[in-house]
């Protein structure tokens, strides 16, 4: 079929969107990849629960979706807080008329340090953020996924190539993201056969976000103890990745550029869509070809 014919066929099959009638929670969706994921889901007919620790940013994303004709609510809070997890699931279910169909565990940041200098707090925070918090959310949402109503249910855990290949200065983050793979496969094996739940991970390579921007730009998050955690990559290291001090392309990425937040979010949309109905328990590498 030509591209145009394929587009028409898709429109006829899904006239109200690929995710029409589904309710989706997207954590960390106040900005970056999460915000783009929320917008793309809404464009495809989903009712989206925007969840972010930054209440103002969370509200802004939800407002932008509703102004564009979509359906969204903002439920801000800290995913490291167990009581917030319970509230998030309850509010999502109420918004969805008693149902939740999609869960995207996207919230997170990095707190880098070389092995011999990494503190207990750095270690515990990153493991808690990328492993324990997603587990707590999946467990809290279990009553809405362990059902036999034949409606689609899908969980996407956001991972990283650091969890596949490791990365200097990120032993905490690398371990956490490697753990996401095991969690993903276990969910797929436990909830797939009886309840039809699909669970996959998406591992991002170099995507242009605040985590990969120049550290000198000053982006930071506030840690659980009030610490100011700097985000980004030192400019010298970013320049080295380009191969010539910063002026050239990215020699280790076949596409010769980082991915955009929209491109990253599009991969999440693809995984939750009916087009990936037979894909389960996989870690989808979204790298522009890097590392192949």
TrEMBL record:
EC number(s) per entry: 1.1.1.100
Catalysed reactions, as listed in the record: a (3R)-hydroxyacyl-[ACP] + NADP(+) = a 3-oxoacyl-[ACP] + NADPH + H(+)
Keywords: NADP, Oxidoreductase
An example Gene Ontology molecular-function term: 3-oxoacyl-[acyl-carrier-protein] reductase (NADPH) activity
Organism domain of life: Eukaryota
NADP found in the keyword field: yes
Start and end residues of each stretch annotated as Disordered: 231-258
Enzyme class of the recorded protein, top EC level: oxidoreductase
Residues annotated as domain Ketoreductase: 22-194
Family assignment from sequence similarity: Belongs to the short-chain dehydrogenases/reductases (SDR) family.
Descriptive protein name: 3-oxoacyl-[acyl-carrier-protein] reductase
Organism: Tolypocladium ophioglossoides (strain CBS 100239) (Snaketongue truffleclub)
């Amino acid at each position: 079929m030509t591209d145009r014919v394929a587009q028409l066929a898709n429109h006829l099959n899904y006239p109200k969107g690929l995710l029409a009638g589904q309710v989706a929670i997207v954590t960390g969706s106040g900005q970056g990849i999460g915000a783009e994921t929320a917008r793309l889901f809404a464009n495809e007919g989903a009712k989206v629960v925007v969840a972010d620790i930054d209440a103002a940013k969370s509200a802004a994303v939800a407002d932008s979706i509703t102004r564009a004709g979509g359906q969204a609510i903002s439920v801000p809070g800290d995913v490291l807080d167990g009581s917030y997890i319970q509230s998030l699931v309850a509010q999502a279910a109420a918004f969805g008329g008693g149902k939740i169909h999609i869960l995207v565990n996207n919230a997170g940041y990095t707190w880098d340090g070389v092995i011999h200098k990494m503190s207990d707090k750095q270690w515990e925070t990153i493991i808690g953020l990328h492993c324990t918090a997603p587990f707590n959310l999946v467990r809290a949402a279990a009553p809405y996924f362990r059902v036999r109503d034949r409606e689609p249910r899908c969980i996407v855990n956001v991972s990283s190539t650091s969890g596949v290949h490791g990365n200097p200065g990120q032993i905490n983050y690398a371990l956490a993201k490697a753990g996401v793979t095991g969690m993903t496969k276990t969910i797929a094996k436990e909830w797939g056969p009886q309840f039809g739940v699909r669970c996959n991970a998406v591992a991002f390579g170099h995507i242009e976000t605040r985590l990969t921007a120049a550290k000198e730009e000053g982006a930071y998050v506030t840690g659980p103890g009030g610490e100011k955690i700097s985000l980004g990559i030192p400019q010298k290291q970013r320049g080295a990745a380009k191969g010539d001090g910063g002026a050239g392309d990215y020699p280790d990425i076949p596409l010769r550029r980082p991915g955009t937040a929209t491109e990253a979010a599009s991969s999440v949309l693809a995984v939750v869509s009916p087009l990936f109905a037979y894909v389960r328990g996989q870690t989808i590498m979204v790298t522009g070809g890097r590392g192949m």
